[in-house]
């Protein structure tokens, strides 16, 4: 998938499948892709592209991506850039939950299964234009509370149900002034 600068596009997998990002690059490595008169620098890549795209899309059934300097920085000023993403849709028993800031939600597994936390992040890694906890306070989309996974694991791992709250009181405030959310990827695993 290629998204030319200042545009957006979505990745959607079939039901029961999740996105796995294989590669992502924001910049310009070809004169012909997303042709523009401002395509002189063809050795241009944002070093954060892969991590940002993975944080927005990995483990979700669908995600929305923007090709903008606001998300990835500007690796080559004055050059018209594009975002290239390679992904696969894989069948999975993983589930993803997003809890907007100031709200609570429960994770629940059937009685014969226990929660296994795959990943968690409190912050913001997606612009609200993609539909994730809409707000005008989404300037920082590279926002992660470093203790998110360990806190969620300590509250939920190995239990059949747990309640989580998306709050600065729990995770700290990794990006002051940005409306945040808690994204949890989890599985329900068999006991024993």
TrEMBL record:
<dbReference type="InterPro" id="IPR043159">
    <property type="entry name" value="Lectin_gal-bd_sf"/>
</dbReference>
<protein>
    <recommendedName>
        <fullName>SUEL-type lectin domain-containing protein</fullName>
    </recommendedName>
</protein>
<dbReference type="Pfam" id="PF02140">
    <property type="entry name" value="SUEL_Lectin"/>
</dbReference>
<dbReference type="InterPro" id="IPR000922">
    <property type="entry name" value="Lectin_gal-bd_dom"/>
</dbReference>
<feature type="domain" description="SUEL-type lectin">
    <location>
        <begin position="99"/>
        <end position="189"/>
    </location>
</feature>
<dbReference type="GO" id="GO:0030246">
    <property type="term" value="F:carbohydrate binding"/>
</dbReference>
<feature type="domain" description="SUEL-type lectin">
    <location>
        <begin position="3"/>
        <end position="90"/>
    </location>
</feature>
């Amino acid at each position: 998938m290629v998204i030319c600068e200042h545009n957006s596009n979505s990745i959607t997998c079939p039901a029961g499948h999740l996105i796995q990002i294989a590669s992502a690059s924001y910049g310009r490595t070809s004169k012909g892709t997303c042709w523009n008169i401002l395509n002189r620098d063809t050795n241009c890549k944002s070093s954060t592209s892969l991590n940002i795209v993975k944080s927005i899309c990995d483990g979700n059934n669908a995600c929305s991506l923007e090709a903008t300097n606001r998300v990835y920085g500007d690796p080559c000023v004055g050059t018209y850039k594009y975002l290239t993403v390679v992904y696969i849709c894989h069948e999975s028993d993983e589930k993803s939950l997003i809890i907007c800031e100031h709200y609570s939600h429960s994770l629940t597994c059937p009685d014969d299964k226990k929660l296994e936390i795959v990943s968690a992040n409190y912050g913001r890694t997606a612009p609200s234009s993609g539909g994730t906890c809409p707000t005008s306070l989404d300037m920082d989309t590279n926002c992660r509370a470093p203790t998110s996974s360990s806190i969620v694991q300590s509250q939920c791992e190995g239990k059949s149900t747990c309640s989580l709250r998306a709050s600065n009181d729990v995770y700290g405030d990794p990006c002051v002034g940005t409306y945040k959310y808690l994204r949890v990827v989890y599985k329900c695993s068999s006991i024993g």
